[in-house]
Design goal:
alpha/beta; Rossmann fold; UDP-galactose 4-epimerase, domain 1; seven-stranded parallel β-sheet; 10 helices; about 40% helix
Length: about 325
């Protein structure tokens, strides 16, 4: 059983990646400072609590656990926050990535799968987006992801690191087995917030702009199930360990869904109305982002069996109901 370091392994996508690694015979070793992640989400290997900003801590963890490869997911990931506080994103995402890669190079760990983002493309010149489109990020979050991809190329030249950068589109959904799911505070993502409105935990879902140049005026995104994303990380790691060259892949379904279409799906799946209100556009949001995942399908065998919209919403809804019902029970017991 090979041991794979997963930075941010207690987070939303990271915990699903740990489950997928375990299912394929690896032992995931999650490094997380728990600023965003949750210790209850680490179920398939050890949790090493700490910060990747501490290079000596990372090196010691690599030695103690005999790490053979790394999946780097520990970063801040909210577009709106990055626009308001860019320094936070440059220090955390870029600075910490440099410290991590230095530690990997020093300990002889050469295979890195990096959690990148479609935000590097900005407002693309055509849809769907292929990997050869020029990157033109329009927000600090996207800039940091693009810089880290360039950093990996520099570490490859200097130290022989080999990497796959996985450019996610919109991660969504929850583990089909109900073991883990999304839990942020505050919650920035669209589908959990629509579910909260459907469940009555919030008064309405705020549609951030209905005047985009899209079919119904709302933003269009490519939603991909987190379980399908997790499987792609395992495939990318296998690709590197079999001698694959460093490269980047888009991870999406190839199908765009508007905010209003997602609201319709939530109403359809839950059987509940979703109160809505329209607000101004959020700074840094492109009108539409839709992947061409053909390269990932061809090279990694990437597939999206869980990513049709109703299945995606249904898994998120089951998790939401179970998770937040448990929270309500805990609050009542404490009173």
């Amino acid at each position: 059983m090979s041991r794979i370091l997963v930075t941010g392994g207690a987070g939303y996508v990271g915990s699903h990646v740990c489950k997928a690694l375990h299912a394929h015979g690896h032992e995931p070793v999650a490094i997380d400072n728990l600023s965003e992640g949750h210790d209850w989400a680490v179920k398939w290997g050890p949790l090493v609590r700490g910060d990747i900003a501490d290079g000596e801590f990372v090196r010691r963890t690599i030695r103690e656990h005999d790490i053979e490869g790394v999946i780097h997911m520990a970063s801040l990931a909210y577009v709106g926050e990055s626009v308001k506080d860019p320094g936070k994103y440059w220090f955390n995402n870029v600075g910490n990535a440099a410290r991590l890669f230095d530690a990997l190079a020093a300990e002889g760990v050469r295979d890195v799968v990096f959690s990148s983002s479609c935000a590097i493309y900005g407002v693309p010149e055509r849809l769907p987006i292929t990997e050869d489109l020029p990157p033109r990020p329009i927000n600090p979050y996207g800039h940091t992801k693009l810089v880290i991809e360039a950093m990996l190329a520099d570490f490859a030249a200097a130290h022989g690191l080999r990497s796959v950068s996985l450019r996610y589109f919109n991660a969504a959904g929850a583990d089909p087995d109900g073991e883990i799911g999304e839990d942020h505070d505050p919650e920035p993502h669209l589908i959990p917030n629509i579910l909260a409105a459907a469940a009555g935990y919030r008064p309405a879902i705020d549609i951030l702009g209905d005047d985009y140049n899209t079919p119904d005026g709302t933003c269009v995104r490519d939603f991909v199930h987190v379980t399908d994303l997790a499987a792609a990380h395992v495939a990318a790691l296998a690709y590197l360990r079999e001698g694959g060259a460093s490269r980047s892949f888009n991870l999406g379904t190839g199908e765009g869904r508007s905010v209003r279409q997602v609201i319709d799906a939530v109403e359809r799946v839950t059987g509940r109305p979703v109160p809505q209100r329209v607000g101004p556009r959020r700074p840094g949001d492109p009108p539409a982002l839709v992947a061409d995942p053909g390269m990932a399908r061809e090279v990694l065998g990437f597939a999206t069996p869980h990513s049709d919209l109703d299945t995606l919403v249904a898994t998120a809804w089951r998790w939401y109901q179970a998770h937040f019902a448990a929270r309500a029970d805990s609050r009542r017991a404490a009173q």
